């Protein structure tokens, strides 16, 4: 075997370097505090300003980490009270955090199937059960999505907020929790596999509006159909590795 062949064999043993995001590192530190017992369920986290100073990163990274933790049901932000760890078991919290930072391989088909099972039902039930307050919150989430999209900002997190408000409107705690548990995988998959398709954010706005209007006007079948169409169109912006 010559030197060139040996070099190729060695190269095949190398793996891509995984560069961690600041928000991932923040989540890992919070996980360690929970595992060690220093941070307990129900306990309040330091303010964003203090976290920014202690972590030595910008406020945006702190907010992203806290937002991901909240979307996953690990922490909750309370008015005038700050951010607190949810009152669930430590082992459950650790599992949720591993899920956020996990590296399990997902495919477009997996994501589409699970979203189809959960979110189509979510849209249907929301159209049947949403309270006036929940409808107002859903409309507000949509308006925020419009603002982000038209400003040219990444609308992904605001998009997810719309879906969580929709899940809230089902008034089914278990369904909401299942959708909540799925969010870290959806976010990670979207970040890693999303392709830049021109015009897709504005197309998605139209799809979200169709879902919203069907829910607001109490049309469960139309809401389910609009969500099914949205999921089908969304899968086209992903590419499997």
Question: Which descriptors apply to this entry?
Answer:
2 strands; two-stranded antiparallel ribbon; Arc Repressor Mutant, subunit A; mainly alpha; Four Helix Bundle (Hemerythrin (Met), subunit A); 241 residues
Model description:
The structure is a single chain. The chain is mainly alpha-helical. It has 2 domains: 22-99, Winged helix-like DNA-binding domain superfamily/Winged helix DNA-binding domain (Arc Repressor Mutant, subunit A, Orthogonal Bundle), CATH 1.10.10.10; 106-237, Up-down Bundle (Four Helix Bundle (Hemerythrin (Met), subunit A)). Helix content is 69%, strand content 3%. The protein has 11 helices and 2 strands. The protein has helices spanning 3-13, 22-36, 48-55, 59-71, 90-101, 108-129, 132-150, 156-168, 173-193, 200-216, 220-234; strands at residues 75-78, 82-85. The chain has a two-stranded antiparallel ribbon with strand order 1-2. Strand 1 and strand 2 form a beta hairpin. Helix 3 crosses helix 4. The longest helix has 22 residues, at 108-129. The model has no long low-confidence stretch (mean pLDDT 82).
């Amino acid at each position: 075997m010559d030197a060139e062949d040996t070099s190729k064999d060695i190269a095949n043993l190398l793996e891509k370097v995984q560069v961690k995001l600041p928000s991932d590192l923040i989540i890992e530190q919070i996980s360690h505090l929970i595992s060690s017992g220093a941070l307990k369920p129900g306990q309040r986290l330091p303010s964003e300003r203090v976290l920014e100073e202690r972590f030595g990163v910008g406020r945006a990274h702190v907010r992203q980490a806290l937002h991901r933790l909240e979307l996953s049901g690990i922490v909750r932000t309370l008015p005038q009270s700050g951010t607190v760890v949810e009152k669930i078991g430590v082992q459950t919290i650790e599992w949720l955090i591993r899920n956020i930072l996990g590296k399990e391989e997902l495919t477009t088909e997996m994501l589409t199937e699970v979203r189809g099972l959960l979110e189509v039902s979510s849209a249907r039930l929301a159209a049947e059960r949403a309270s006036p307050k929940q409808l107002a919150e859903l409309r507000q989430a949509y308006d925020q999505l419009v603002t982000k999209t038209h400003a040219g900002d990444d609308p992904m997190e605001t998009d997810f907020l719309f879906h969580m408000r929709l899940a809230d409107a089902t008034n089914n705690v278990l369904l909401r929790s299942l959708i909540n548990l799925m969010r870290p995988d959806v976010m990670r998959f979207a970040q890693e596999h999303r392709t830049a398709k021109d015009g897709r954010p504005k197309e998605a706005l139209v799809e979200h509006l169709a879902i919203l209007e069907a829910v607001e006007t109490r049309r469960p079948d139309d809401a389910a159909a609009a969500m099914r169409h949205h999921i089908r169109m969304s899968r086209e912006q992903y590419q499997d590795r």
